[in-house]
Amino acid sequence: MKIKLLEVSLKKGEKLFLGNKFYVIKKGSVLLKKILENGKVISYENILKKDEIIGNFLALSERNFLILPEIEIEIEALEETLIEEIKISKNELNNNPIFKRLLNQLIKQYIIKFISHICDPVKVLLILLKINSDSNGVVEKKNVSYENLNMSRTQYYSILTLVKKENLLKEEKKRIILNLKKIDEKLNSDNFLEKCI
C-alpha cells in the first residue's frame, strides 16, 4: 500500500479501514463491509466504483434518537484502486437546507438497511416508523411500505397488527400516529441493541 498526500493506492486484495474519513474512488473498485464493534460483519456488502464516495455516513447525521452500535467501514480493493480523501463538514451540510434534507433521507435509508440485517422485523418496523415521523409522532402512510423493510406484505401487516395491539400506534386514513413514549420504552426495555447484535 502506497500512501500519498490525501491519496491511497491499493493493490487487488488489499484492505483498509476508513476510520472517520471519506474518500472518492478515483480508479478501480472496492468491496465495502460494515463491521460492528463486536466483530460481526454485516451480511450485505456493496461494490463501489470510480467516482463513488465511501465513508461512515451515519457519523454525519444529527439524528440522535436512536443509538446505533459503533461500526467500522472496511474496503477491499477488487483491482488496482486509487482513492482520494475528501473533507466533508457535518456543520456545512447541516447548515444547507437542501443538503440537510438529502442527507437525512440517505441516513434514513442507510439506517433501515443496517437495522434490517441485525434486528427482528418488529424492531425494524418501529424504527422505520419513528425515523419517518414528525416531532408529534405522525407518519404519512405513503412514506412507509413493506418493500422498504425487505419483508412480505403479509409479514408487514401482521407486525403492524401486533404493534397496534400493544398500543404502540394507531392508524387513521392516511396517517399513523405513534405513541413515542411507549415505543421508546419498548426499544429501551428490550435491550434493543443487545438483542439485535
Description:
The chain is α+β, with helices and mostly antiparallel strands. Strands 1-2-9-4-7 form a 5-stranded antiparallel beta sheet, with no helix packed on it. Strands 3-8-5-6 form a 4-stranded antiparallel beta sheet, with no helix packed on it. The radius of gyration is 19 Å and the shape is elongated. Helix content is 34%, strand content 27%. It contains 6 helices and 12 strands.
Total DSSP E strands? 12
Order of helices and strands: EEEEEEEEEHHHEHEEHH
Q: Gap between N and C termini, in Å?
A: 33 Å
Rg on CA atoms, Å: 19 Å
Proportion of strand residues: 25-35%
Largest beta-sheet details: 5 strands, antiparallel
Structural class by SSE content: alpha+beta
Brief summary of the model shown:
The protein is an alpha+beta fold and 197 residues long. It has 6 helices and 12 strands.
